[in-house]
Amino acid sequence: MRLLAVLLPFISAFFLFGASAEARIYCPLPEHGIWINPDAAPKELIRLEVETKCQDDQVFARIRAFTKCTPRDCKWGWTKAELRDGGGLRVLLIGFLSSKIIDVRKIGENLDAFVTNITNDGSQPERLKSYSLKRL
Fold this sequence. Notes:
Helix content: 10-25%
Structural class: mainly beta
Largest sheet: 8 strands, antiparallel, barrel
Strand order of the largest sheet: 1-2-3-5-6-7-8-9
Oligomer: single chain
Number of helices: 1
Shape: globular
Radius of gyration: 22 Å
Order of helices and strands: HEEEEEEEEE
């Protein structure tokens, strides 16, 4: 009983201060991998490549997007992605005539992608389209 009285403050401190430790980073992130949309129509998102790595307790992510074009798919270069509050990633792809904001998050076995198309001259309203991609 006396031993318990001596150890109780140490045990309490362990649980109090141990719970406030830094959040643990898991890599690769669930979104990591190659994702495809086999039913894509022209100009729609057909493939996403997501790379993630952890270094010095930081997460680094980049995304490369492909849209369906003829005769071959259009490729957007590798672009740094930002972690979103609550999970998932966001990337801004800047093109000559238009840009895209792509938000991705893994839900179950699929990757949900929300693509906002923005014309750089403001001549058309922003368009939001959602896709459910499957892992390749």
